[in-house]
Amino acid sequence: MPVSGQEISRVVDEIVRAAGANGEARRKEIEEDMARFLDHGVPIESATRTIMHRFGAAGASGLKSVASLQEGDMDVTIVGKILSLNARQVVARGENKTVFFGFIGDETGTISYSSFKDIAPLNLAKGDIVRIEHAYVNQWNEKLRLNLGDRSTISKQEAKEMNIPAPIAEAKEYPVSELKGGLRNVTVTAKIESVGQRTVETKTGAKIVYSGKLADETGGARFSAWHDFGLNQGDVVRIEGAYTREWQGVVDINFDERCKVTKLDKKIETSVRVVPIREIEAKGGAYDAIIEGVVVDIRPGSGLISRCPQCNKTLQKGQCKEHGAVDGMPDLRIRTVIDDGTGTLNVTIGRELSEPLIGKTLEQCKAEAQKAFDPEVVVEHIRKSLVMKPLLVKGNAKKDDFGLSMIANDAKPLALDRAKLREKAESMLEDMEAI
User: Fold this and answer.
1) For FRET with 354, which of 54, 205, 274, 360 sits at 20 to 30 Å CA-CA?
2) What totals of helices (H) and strands (E) does the chain contain, helices first?
3) How does pLDDT run across 54-88, given as a tens digit for each residue?
4) Cβ(84)–Cβ(71) under 8 Å?
């Protein structure tokens, strides 16, 4: 496979860094050696090993321990245990890509990793033992990070015990709005806005998790407490030693019995902020986001639908994908597209919120459809009621292959602010003229 000039430049840069003080002074020699090897058909991995040996660079190939890794190491091979595995969508060179990231460790220590290589087909999970080859090490946020590129390989190994020392991360306090996935030893002070409990199955059996929403002056986030701290709605707490996970742009703050949770005698005025769709798009999702925009389309699947009485999924021609032919339960929903001037969002609105929006109940919609012998009369009524009308929606937003979407937990019409709409229209025209 031909090697791109960008890949060659990256490898040369890594060799220069790994060679230390003499590297930059001998960059031209390194480039010439690399070009000569590649011209003779030598694989870039073999060329890299040879050049690194010649220039005394760190990172010669061979199995390494995590503790021995250094910035600039290349062609690294390690065997370790996956401690966490996350994924997020990014745009790289104009293309949507999935980046896998987390922590991996062995008996000597732990290190964060990042993989642009698609490892999804391996079905890896937390706790798996893996062998990684042809990786390299750099610094990210002043910490070492193991990187897997297109030429790296990763394979699952036979399960074995590994006594991995707990990573020591520097404690840091964050405002809620600055939390992101993959953080450790997090301190946050926030107000508990909602809390409930659910039972989950773990390796040690069933466990009760207390989850809900917390918020401060900057924003809100989801939390999961793996220990009963006696949290109540309205409590203001300081949480120390937490860690974060992220899925589809939604951050989840996790803490357990090893963390310190202190109830504080203070007030926090939580933030209620309308979020631009463009901001949610950039993050890949949002938790409990409030969006204001104009309804620009009513999508197929709106109006009267039928649901399976067993699994509640939508029926197609009287058929459930899981349970076959069933007597469906009637329901009402709206699938719409909202534009706020910065982007568009697909929103699904359930019956309880749809009825007040269109001024008709499910029973009234059924009666009208039966009278007209056509369920499309309900869809047409939805269009007349909502299209080109301003709407506020609230819920969790996520980004997938079909774009940005939300299942609304609140939806209500906004007063028609003509000045505001005119300002948005002028802004959109300016953006179009600038293209």
Assistant:
1) 274
2) 8, 21
3) 665 544 446 788 888 887 788 889 999 998 888 87
4) no
152 & 92 share domain: yes
Residue 400 has pLDDT above 90, yes or no: no
- Between helix 44-54 and helix 5-18 the angle, nearest 10°, is 30
**For the chain, how many structural domains are there in total?**
4
Range of the domain at 231: 172-263
DSSP strand E in 203-259: where?
A: 205-215, 220-225, 236-247, 250-255
- Residue 382 scores a pLDDT above 80: yes
For residue 431, is it within any domain? no
200 and 254 part of one domain: yes
Residues 6+ apart with CB under 8 A from 330: 304, 305, 306, 362, 366
Q: How far apart are CA 62 and CA 106, in angstroms?
A: 16
143-148 and 109-115: which strand pairing? parallel
Which is higher by pLDDT, 362 or 90? 362
Tokens representing 64 are 């390494």
Q: Which of 25-39, 181-195, 242-256 has the lowest mean pLDDT?
A: 25-39
- Asked if residue 162 is part of any domain, the answer here is no
202 close to 126: Cβ distance less than 8 angstroms: no
Residue 268 domain-assigned? no
Assign 435 a pLDDT band (cuts: 50, 70, 90).
very low
- Could you give the CA distance from residue 37 to residue 48 in angstroms, rounded to a whole number? 9
135-167 burial, b for 16+ CB within 10 Å, e for fewer?
Answer: bbbbeeeeebbbbbeebbebeeeeeeeeebeee
Q: Is 428 part of any domain?
A: no
H-assigned helices in 76-224: none
Closest to 366 measured CA to CA, from 355, 357, 356, 410: 355
Give percent of the chain with pLDDT exceeding 90: 40
Report how far residue 391's alpha carbon sits from residue 385's, in angstroms, rounded to the nearest whole number.
11
